[in-house]
Amino acid sequence: MIRTWDRSRALFERARHSLTGGVSSPVRATSPVPLYFSNGRGARLLDVDGNEYIDYQLAWGPNILGYNHPHMVEAMRAQAERPYSYGAQHELEIAVAERIQACVPCAQRVAFTSSGSEAVQLAQRLARAFTGRPQILKFEGHYHGWMDSVLHSHHPAPQQTGPRERPNVVRESVGQVSNSVENVIVAPWNDVEVLERLLAEHSQTVAAVIMEPVLCNSGCLLPKPGYLPAAQELARRHGALLVFDEVITGFRMALGGAQSHYGVIPDLATFGKAVAGGLPLSVIAGRQEIMEQMFTGGVVFGGSFNGNPTSLAGANAVLEELARDNGAAIQRANCTGDKLRAGLQQLAQQHRIPLLVTGFGAALCLHFTPRSDLVDYRDTLADDSERLRRFLYLAMEEGVILVPDGRMYVSIVHEERDVEETLAAFARVFGKL
Ligand SMILES: Cc1ncc(COP(=O)(O)O)c(C=O)c1O
Protein backbone atom coordinates (compact mmCIF):
# COMPACT_ATOMS: atom_id res chain seq x y z
CA MET A 1 0.00 0.00 0.00
CA ILE A 2 1.39 3.41 -0.92
CA ARG A 3 0.60 5.91 1.79
CA THR A 4 -0.56 9.48 1.49
CA TRP A 5 -0.23 12.17 4.11
CA ASP A 6 -2.89 14.80 3.42
CA ARG A 7 -3.91 15.36 7.04
CA SER A 8 -0.29 15.55 8.20
CA ARG A 9 0.36 18.11 5.46
CA ALA A 10 -2.64 20.18 6.57
CA LEU A 11 -1.61 20.06 10.25
CA PHE A 12 1.96 21.01 9.40
CA GLU A 13 0.68 23.96 7.38
CA ARG A 14 -1.45 25.04 10.36
CA ALA A 15 1.43 24.52 12.83
CA ARG A 16 3.76 26.78 10.89
CA HIS A 17 1.65 29.80 11.86
CA SER A 18 2.10 29.26 15.60
CA LEU A 19 4.88 26.77 16.33
CA THR A 20 8.26 28.04 15.13
CA GLY A 21 9.10 26.09 12.00
CA GLY A 22 6.02 23.91 12.59
CA VAL A 23 7.93 21.39 14.76
CA SER A 24 9.26 21.19 18.33
CA SER A 25 12.80 20.30 17.31
CA PRO A 26 14.25 21.33 13.93
CA VAL A 27 15.56 17.82 13.14
CA ARG A 28 11.94 16.64 13.06
CA ALA A 29 11.13 18.73 9.98
CA THR A 30 11.71 15.78 7.69
CA SER A 31 10.68 15.23 4.09
CA PRO A 32 8.27 14.80 2.41
CA VAL A 33 6.22 16.04 5.37
CA PRO A 34 6.65 15.79 9.15
CA LEU A 35 4.16 13.12 10.18
CA TYR A 36 1.55 13.76 12.86
CA PHE A 37 0.84 10.70 14.97
CA SER A 38 -2.36 9.78 16.71
CA ASN A 39 -1.48 6.56 18.53
CA GLY A 40 0.84 3.59 18.81
CA ARG A 41 0.88 0.03 20.06
CA GLY A 42 3.77 -2.39 20.38
CA ALA A 43 6.27 -1.59 17.64
CA ARG A 44 3.67 0.16 15.48
CA LEU A 45 2.65 3.79 15.09
CA LEU A 46 -0.53 5.23 13.60
CA ASP A 47 -0.60 8.61 11.88
CA VAL A 48 -3.52 11.00 11.50
CA ASP A 49 -4.12 9.81 7.93
CA GLY A 50 -4.79 6.30 9.24
CA ASN A 51 -1.44 4.88 8.06
CA GLU A 52 0.27 2.26 10.17
CA TYR A 53 4.05 2.04 10.39
CA ILE A 54 6.58 -0.36 11.85
CA ASP A 55 8.62 2.12 13.83
CA TYR A 56 12.40 1.97 14.20
CA GLN A 57 12.73 5.60 15.22
CA LEU A 58 11.30 4.99 18.71
CA ALA A 59 11.16 8.73 19.40
CA TRP A 60 14.91 8.92 18.55
CA GLY A 61 15.68 6.08 20.92
CA PRO A 62 13.73 6.32 24.19
CA ASN A 63 10.82 3.93 23.55
CA ILE A 64 12.65 0.75 24.46
CA LEU A 65 9.33 -0.85 25.54
CA GLY A 66 7.62 0.20 22.31
CA TYR A 67 4.25 1.95 22.51
CA ASN A 68 1.59 1.59 25.22
CA HIS A 69 3.37 -1.27 26.91
CA PRO A 70 0.93 -2.67 29.51
CA HIS A 71 3.43 -2.37 32.37
CA MET A 72 4.12 1.27 31.49
CA VAL A 73 0.42 2.06 31.08
CA GLU A 74 -0.29 0.55 34.49
CA ALA A 75 2.54 2.55 36.10
CA MET A 76 1.26 5.78 34.49
CA ARG A 77 -2.31 5.06 35.62
CA ALA A 78 -1.17 4.52 39.20
CA GLN A 79 0.87 7.71 39.06
CA ALA A 80 -1.91 9.77 37.50
CA GLU A 81 -3.75 9.91 40.82
CA ARG A 82 -0.70 11.25 42.65
CA PRO A 83 1.08 14.61 42.46
CA TYR A 84 3.07 15.08 39.26
CA SER A 85 5.86 16.90 40.99
CA TYR A 86 6.96 17.47 44.58
CA GLY A 87 10.24 19.30 44.22
CA ALA A 88 11.07 17.18 47.23
CA GLN A 89 11.88 13.61 48.19
CA HIS A 90 9.77 10.56 47.47
CA GLU A 91 10.43 6.83 47.57
CA LEU A 92 10.54 6.23 43.81
CA GLU A 93 13.82 8.18 43.66
CA ILE A 94 15.45 5.60 45.90
CA ALA A 95 13.81 2.64 44.16
CA VAL A 96 15.05 3.73 40.72
CA ALA A 97 18.52 4.70 42.00
CA GLU A 98 18.81 1.23 43.56
CA ARG A 99 17.70 -0.45 40.36
CA ILE A 100 20.38 1.49 38.45
CA GLN A 101 23.03 0.64 41.04
CA ALA A 102 22.12 -3.02 40.66
CA CYS A 103 22.89 -3.12 36.94
CA VAL A 104 25.21 -0.23 35.96
CA PRO A 105 28.79 -1.02 37.04
CA CYS A 106 29.99 2.59 37.58
CA ALA A 107 26.91 3.63 39.58
CA GLN A 108 28.24 3.96 43.12
CA ARG A 109 26.01 7.02 43.31
CA VAL A 110 23.25 8.31 41.04
CA ALA A 111 21.61 11.69 40.37
CA PHE A 112 18.51 12.44 38.30
CA THR A 113 17.74 15.30 35.99
CA SER A 114 15.54 15.71 32.92
CA SER A 115 17.51 15.60 29.66
CA GLY A 116 20.70 14.06 28.37
CA SER A 117 22.05 17.54 27.67
CA GLU A 118 21.70 18.51 31.33
CA ALA A 119 23.26 15.28 32.54
CA VAL A 120 26.34 15.96 30.40
CA GLN A 121 26.62 19.49 31.83
CA LEU A 122 26.72 18.06 35.34
CA ALA A 123 29.25 15.38 34.38
CA GLN A 124 31.56 18.04 32.96
CA ARG A 125 31.22 20.25 36.01
CA LEU A 126 31.93 17.35 38.38
CA ALA A 127 35.01 16.39 36.35
CA ARG A 128 36.35 19.95 36.33
CA ALA A 129 35.74 20.32 40.06
CA PHE A 130 37.33 16.97 40.88
CA THR A 131 40.48 17.51 38.84
CA GLY A 132 40.75 21.29 39.15
CA ARG A 133 41.35 21.39 35.39
CA PRO A 134 39.48 23.31 32.68
CA GLN A 135 39.50 21.26 29.46
CA ILE A 136 37.33 18.49 28.08
CA LEU A 137 38.63 16.18 25.36
CA LYS A 138 35.86 15.03 23.05
CA PHE A 139 35.78 13.19 19.75
CA GLU A 140 34.80 14.24 16.27
CA GLY A 141 31.31 13.06 15.33
CA HIS A 142 30.18 12.52 18.94
CA TYR A 143 27.10 14.35 20.22
CA HIS A 144 26.61 15.28 23.85
CA GLY A 145 23.63 17.62 23.68
CA TRP A 146 22.99 21.06 22.32
CA MET A 147 24.56 23.26 25.02
CA ASP A 148 27.32 25.75 24.21
CA SER A 149 30.02 23.89 26.13
CA VAL A 150 29.74 20.63 24.17
CA LEU A 151 28.22 21.42 20.79
CA HIS A 152 31.51 21.10 18.93
CA SER A 153 32.55 19.04 15.92
CA HIS A 154 29.44 16.86 15.95
CA HIS A 155 28.94 16.98 12.20
CA PRO A 156 31.48 19.48 10.87
CA ALA A 157 31.48 20.02 7.11
CA PRO A 158 34.48 18.42 5.39
CA GLN A 159 36.04 21.82 4.66
CA GLN A 160 35.89 22.72 8.38
CA THR A 161 37.40 19.61 9.89
CA GLY A 162 41.16 20.37 9.60
CA PRO A 163 43.92 17.75 9.82
CA ARG A 164 42.77 14.31 10.93
CA GLU A 165 45.41 14.01 13.69
CA ARG A 166 44.54 17.45 15.05
CA PRO A 167 40.95 18.26 14.16
CA ASN A 168 39.65 21.81 14.40
CA VAL A 169 37.22 22.53 17.22
CA VAL A 170 34.17 23.49 15.18
CA ARG A 171 31.19 25.27 16.76
CA GLU A 172 27.96 23.79 15.40
CA SER A 173 25.56 26.67 15.97
CA VAL A 174 25.27 30.30 15.12
CA GLY A 175 24.99 32.17 18.40
CA GLN A 176 27.15 29.70 20.29
CA VAL A 177 29.58 31.49 22.59
CA SER A 178 32.86 31.76 20.72
CA ASN A 179 35.31 31.20 23.58
CA SER A 180 33.69 27.83 24.39
CA VAL A 181 36.30 26.33 22.04
CA GLU A 182 39.09 27.25 24.47
CA ASN A 183 38.02 24.53 26.86
CA VAL A 184 37.62 21.81 24.26
CA ILE A 185 40.07 19.53 22.51
CA VAL A 186 38.75 17.45 19.64
CA ALA A 187 40.32 14.10 18.74
CA PRO A 188 39.57 11.55 16.05
CA TRP A 189 37.84 8.56 17.65
CA ASN A 190 39.13 4.99 17.58
CA ASP A 191 42.76 6.08 17.28
CA VAL A 192 44.88 5.32 20.35
CA GLU A 193 48.06 6.94 19.05
CA VAL A 194 46.49 10.33 18.40
CA LEU A 195 44.69 10.24 21.74
CA GLU A 196 47.96 9.47 23.47
CA ARG A 197 49.69 12.39 21.77
CA LEU A 198 46.91 14.89 22.44
CA LEU A 199 46.63 13.90 26.09
CA ALA A 200 50.40 14.13 26.53
CA GLU A 201 50.32 17.63 25.04
CA HIS A 202 47.55 18.73 27.42
CA SER A 203 48.54 16.55 30.35
CA GLN A 204 47.92 19.08 33.10
CA THR A 205 44.76 20.66 31.71
CA VAL A 206 42.34 17.90 30.63
CA ALA A 207 39.65 17.22 33.23
CA ALA A 208 37.80 14.54 31.30
CA VAL A 209 37.79 12.43 28.19
CA ILE A 210 34.15 12.12 27.14
CA MET A 211 32.83 9.81 24.45
CA GLU A 212 29.90 7.82 23.24
CA PRO A 213 31.28 4.31 23.86
CA VAL A 214 29.56 3.31 20.60
CA LEU A 215 29.48 6.21 18.17
CA CYS A 216 25.71 6.16 17.68
CA ASN A 217 25.36 9.77 16.56
CA SER A 218 27.58 9.35 13.51
CA GLY A 219 26.34 6.09 12.10
CA CYS A 220 26.50 3.57 14.97
CA LEU A 221 30.22 2.80 14.73
CA LEU A 222 31.72 0.32 17.18
CA PRO A 223 34.91 0.88 19.14
CA LYS A 224 37.87 -1.08 17.77
CA PRO A 225 38.82 -4.04 19.96
CA GLY A 226 40.95 -2.69 22.79
CA TYR A 227 40.16 0.96 22.14
CA LEU A 228 38.00 1.58 25.21
CA PRO A 229 40.44 0.04 27.72
CA ALA A 230 43.30 1.92 26.05
CA ALA A 231 41.40 5.21 26.30
CA GLN A 232 40.71 4.49 29.95
CA GLU A 233 44.37 3.74 30.67
CA LEU A 234 45.49 6.93 28.88
CA ALA A 235 42.96 9.09 30.73
CA ARG A 236 44.14 7.67 34.06
CA ARG A 237 47.79 8.11 33.18
CA HIS A 238 47.18 11.79 32.51
CA GLY A 239 44.98 12.39 35.55
CA ALA A 240 41.77 12.88 33.54
CA LEU A 241 38.41 11.22 34.25
CA LEU A 242 36.76 8.94 31.71
CA VAL A 243 33.14 9.83 31.02
CA PHE A 244 30.93 7.55 28.94
CA ASP A 245 27.91 9.27 27.44
CA GLU A 246 25.51 6.33 27.46
CA VAL A 247 22.41 8.33 26.60
CA ILE A 248 21.86 5.94 23.67
CA THR A 249 23.76 2.78 24.65
CA GLY A 250 22.36 2.76 28.20
CA PHE A 251 19.59 0.19 28.85
CA ARG A 252 19.83 -0.74 25.16
CA MET A 253 23.17 -2.36 24.35
CA ALA A 254 22.93 -4.28 27.62
CA LEU A 255 21.13 -3.77 30.90
CA GLY A 256 24.30 -2.20 32.30
CA GLY A 257 25.03 -0.26 29.10
CA ALA A 258 28.14 -0.33 26.93
CA GLN A 259 30.30 -0.26 30.07
CA SER A 260 29.05 -3.68 31.12
CA HIS A 261 29.10 -5.00 27.55
CA TYR A 262 32.76 -4.03 27.06
CA GLY A 263 33.83 -4.41 30.69
CA VAL A 264 35.27 -0.89 30.86
CA ILE A 265 33.99 1.03 33.86
CA PRO A 266 34.16 4.81 33.47
CA ASP A 267 34.49 7.30 36.33
CA LEU A 268 31.19 8.92 35.35
CA ALA A 269 28.41 8.04 32.91
CA THR A 270 25.35 9.81 31.61
CA PHE A 271 22.08 8.12 30.68
CA GLY A 272 18.80 9.33 29.21
CA LYS A 273 16.40 8.20 26.49
CA ALA A 274 15.58 4.51 27.20
CA VAL A 275 15.88 4.78 30.98
CA ALA A 276 12.31 6.07 31.34
CA GLY A 277 10.87 4.59 28.14
CA GLY A 278 9.83 7.93 26.63
CA LEU A 279 9.35 10.12 29.69
CA PRO A 280 11.85 12.90 30.32
CA LEU A 281 14.52 11.59 32.66
CA SER A 282 18.29 11.51 32.62
CA VAL A 283 20.85 10.09 34.98
CA ILE A 284 24.40 10.86 36.03
CA ALA A 285 26.09 7.92 37.67
CA GLY A 286 29.60 7.45 38.92
CA ARG A 287 32.20 7.14 41.61
CA GLN A 288 30.99 8.22 45.02
CA GLU A 289 33.76 10.74 45.76
CA ILE A 290 33.19 12.48 42.43
CA MET A 291 29.41 12.52 42.66
CA GLU A 292 29.31 13.70 46.27
CA GLN A 293 31.05 16.93 45.41
CA MET A 294 27.46 18.14 44.87
CA PHE A 295 27.04 18.08 48.63
CA THR A 296 30.50 18.38 50.07
CA GLY A 297 32.57 20.01 47.34
CA GLY A 298 30.58 23.07 46.36
CA VAL A 299 29.44 21.78 42.95
CA VAL A 300 26.13 23.44 42.08
CA PHE A 301 23.43 21.31 40.47
CA GLY A 302 19.83 22.38 40.02
CA GLY A 303 16.62 21.60 38.18
CA SER A 304 12.96 22.09 39.13
CA PHE A 305 12.10 18.73 37.60
CA ASN A 306 15.00 16.71 39.05
CA GLY A 307 13.65 13.43 40.42
CA ASN A 308 10.26 14.03 38.84
CA PRO A 309 7.85 11.38 40.18
CA THR A 310 6.04 10.82 36.89
CA SER A 311 9.28 10.18 35.02
CA LEU A 312 10.55 7.98 37.84
CA ALA A 313 7.35 5.94 37.85
CA GLY A 314 8.03 5.31 34.15
CA ALA A 315 11.68 4.47 34.83
CA ASN A 316 10.70 2.11 37.62
CA ALA A 317 8.43 0.20 35.24
CA VAL A 318 11.02 0.19 32.44
CA LEU A 319 13.83 -1.03 34.67
CA GLU A 320 11.68 -3.69 36.27
CA GLU A 321 10.68 -4.95 32.82
CA LEU A 322 14.25 -4.87 31.49
CA ALA A 323 15.86 -6.45 34.56
CA ARG A 324 13.51 -9.44 34.56
CA ASP A 325 15.26 -12.78 33.86
CA ASN A 326 18.66 -11.16 33.94
CA GLY A 327 18.03 -8.75 31.08
CA ALA A 328 16.39 -11.30 28.76
CA ALA A 329 14.25 -8.67 27.00
CA ILE A 330 17.25 -6.55 26.01
CA GLN A 331 19.08 -9.61 24.78
CA ARG A 332 16.02 -10.46 22.70
CA ALA A 333 15.87 -6.94 21.22
CA ASN A 334 19.54 -7.23 20.28
CA CYS A 335 18.91 -10.63 18.63
CA THR A 336 15.96 -9.17 16.71
CA GLY A 337 18.22 -6.36 15.49
CA ASP A 338 20.90 -8.86 14.45
CA LYS A 339 18.34 -10.69 12.30
CA LEU A 340 17.27 -7.42 10.75
CA ARG A 341 20.84 -6.48 9.97
CA ALA A 342 21.64 -9.87 8.43
CA GLY A 343 18.47 -9.73 6.33
CA LEU A 344 19.21 -6.20 5.16
CA GLN A 345 22.78 -7.02 4.15
CA GLN A 346 21.54 -10.04 2.21
CA LEU A 347 18.85 -8.04 0.42
CA ALA A 348 21.33 -5.34 -0.55
CA GLN A 349 23.66 -7.97 -1.95
CA GLN A 350 20.85 -9.54 -3.98
CA HIS A 351 20.00 -6.11 -5.43
CA ARG A 352 23.69 -5.23 -5.93
CA ILE A 353 23.34 -2.14 -3.79
CA PRO A 354 26.47 -1.11 -1.89
CA LEU A 355 25.23 -1.06 1.69
CA LEU A 356 26.98 -1.44 5.01
CA VAL A 357 24.87 -1.91 8.14
CA THR A 358 26.83 -0.90 11.24
CA GLY A 359 26.10 -0.89 14.96
CA PHE A 360 24.91 -3.48 17.42
CA GLY A 361 21.66 -5.43 17.57
CA ALA A 362 19.30 -2.84 19.01
CA ALA A 363 20.89 0.21 17.32
CA LEU A 364 21.82 -0.15 13.67
CA CYS A 365 22.66 2.28 10.91
CA LEU A 366 22.45 2.01 7.14
CA HIS A 367 25.34 3.39 5.12
CA PHE A 368 25.10 3.46 1.34
CA THR A 369 28.79 3.01 0.76
CA PRO A 370 31.01 0.46 -0.99
CA ARG A 371 33.29 0.40 2.08
CA SER A 372 33.41 -2.72 4.22
CA ASP A 373 34.44 -0.92 7.41
CA LEU A 374 33.83 2.50 8.99
CA VAL A 375 35.98 3.56 11.89
CA ASP A 376 35.30 7.21 12.62
CA TYR A 377 33.16 10.19 11.63
CA ARG A 378 35.28 11.14 8.61
CA ASP A 379 34.78 7.68 7.09
CA THR A 380 31.04 8.35 6.97
CA LEU A 381 31.41 11.53 4.94
CA ALA A 382 31.62 9.52 1.72
CA ASP A 383 28.21 7.86 2.31
CA ASP A 384 25.69 8.41 -0.50
CA SER A 385 23.29 10.70 1.37
CA GLU A 386 21.01 11.22 -1.64
CA ARG A 387 20.45 7.48 -1.89
CA LEU A 388 19.70 7.32 1.83
CA ARG A 389 17.18 10.15 1.49
CA ARG A 390 15.41 8.29 -1.31
CA PHE A 391 15.51 5.04 0.67
CA LEU A 392 13.92 6.71 3.71
CA TYR A 393 11.16 8.20 1.59
CA LEU A 394 10.36 4.89 -0.12
CA ALA A 395 10.50 3.04 3.22
CA MET A 396 8.01 5.51 4.69
CA GLU A 397 5.73 4.94 1.71
CA GLU A 398 6.00 1.21 2.45
CA GLY A 399 5.16 1.75 6.13
CA VAL A 400 8.56 1.59 7.80
CA ILE A 401 10.02 4.54 9.71
CA LEU A 402 13.73 4.99 10.42
CA VAL A 403 15.70 7.81 12.05
CA PRO A 404 16.47 10.38 9.31
CA ASP A 405 20.21 9.61 9.40
CA GLY A 406 19.57 5.94 8.61
CA ARG A 407 19.62 4.66 12.19
CA MET A 408 17.20 1.93 13.27
CA TYR A 409 16.36 1.39 16.93
CA VAL A 410 14.88 -1.95 17.94
CA SER A 411 12.66 -2.24 21.02
CA ILE A 412 11.91 -5.24 23.22
CA VAL A 413 8.52 -5.61 21.50
CA HIS A 414 9.70 -5.81 17.89
CA GLU A 415 8.90 -9.37 16.88
CA GLU A 416 9.86 -11.86 14.20
CA ARG A 417 6.75 -10.79 12.26
CA ASP A 418 7.90 -7.14 12.29
CA VAL A 419 11.31 -8.14 10.97
CA GLU A 420 9.74 -10.24 8.19
CA GLU A 421 7.38 -7.45 7.16
CA THR A 422 10.20 -4.92 7.31
CA LEU A 423 12.45 -7.01 5.10
CA ALA A 424 9.63 -7.58 2.62
CA ALA A 425 9.05 -3.82 2.49
CA PHE A 426 12.80 -3.16 2.10
CA ALA A 427 12.95 -5.69 -0.76
CA ARG A 428 10.36 -3.57 -2.61
CA VAL A 429 12.28 -0.42 -1.73
CA PHE A 430 15.58 -1.83 -3.02
CA GLY A 431 13.77 -2.83 -6.22
CA LYS A 432 12.82 0.82 -6.75
CA LEU A 433 16.15 2.38 -5.72
C1 LIG B 1 24.85 10.49 23.21
C2 LIG B 1 23.91 11.62 23.53
N1 LIG B 1 24.20 12.45 24.53
C3 LIG B 1 23.39 13.46 24.88
C4 LIG B 1 22.24 13.70 24.19
C5 LIG B 1 21.34 14.82 24.59
O1 LIG B 1 20.19 14.29 25.16
P1 LIG B 1 18.82 15.14 25.19
O2 LIG B 1 18.34 15.24 23.79
O3 LIG B 1 17.94 14.34 26.08
O4 LIG B 1 19.16 16.47 25.77
C6 LIG B 1 21.88 12.88 23.12
C7 LIG B 1 20.68 13.11 22.34
O5 LIG B 1 20.44 12.57 21.31
C8 LIG B 1 22.75 11.81 22.78
O6 LIG B 1 22.47 10.99 21.77
What structural class should be given to the helix and strand makeup?
A: alpha/beta
Q: Distance between termini? A: 17 Å
Bound molecules: pyridoxal-5'-phosphate
Q: What's the overall geometry?
A: globular
What is the helix content? 25-40%
> Would you tell me the overall average pLDDT?
97
Number of helix segments? 13
Low-pLDDT residue spans: none
Order of strands across the main sheet: 4-10-9-8-7-5-6
SSE sequence, one letter per element = HEEEHHEHEEHEHEHEEHHHEEHHEEH
- Number of E-type strands: 14
Largest sheet features: 7 strands, mixed
Strand content: 5-15%
Q: Give Rg in angstroms.
A: 21 Å
Task: Describe this entry's structure for a reader.
This protein is an alpha/beta fold and 433 residues long. It is 37% helix and 14% strand. It has 13 helices and 14 strands. It has helices spanning 6-15, 70-80, 91-103, 116-131, 192-201, 227-237, 257-262, 288-291, 293-296, 309-350, 377-380, 385-397, 416-432; strands spanning 37-41, 44-47, 52-55, 109-113, 135-139, 184-187, 206-211, 241-245, 268-271, 282-286, 356-360, 363-367, 400-401, 407-409. The strands form three sheets. A seven-stranded mixed beta sheet has the order 4-10-9-8-7-5-6, with helices on both faces. A hairpin with a 2-residue loop joins strand 1 and strand 2 (44-47). It starts with 5 loop residues before the first helix and ends with a helix. The model has no long low-confidence stretch (mean pLDDT 97). The protein binds pyridoxal-5'-phosphate (PLP). Pyridoxal-5'-phosphate is lined by residues 115-117, 120, 143-145, 212, 217, 245, 247-248, 272.
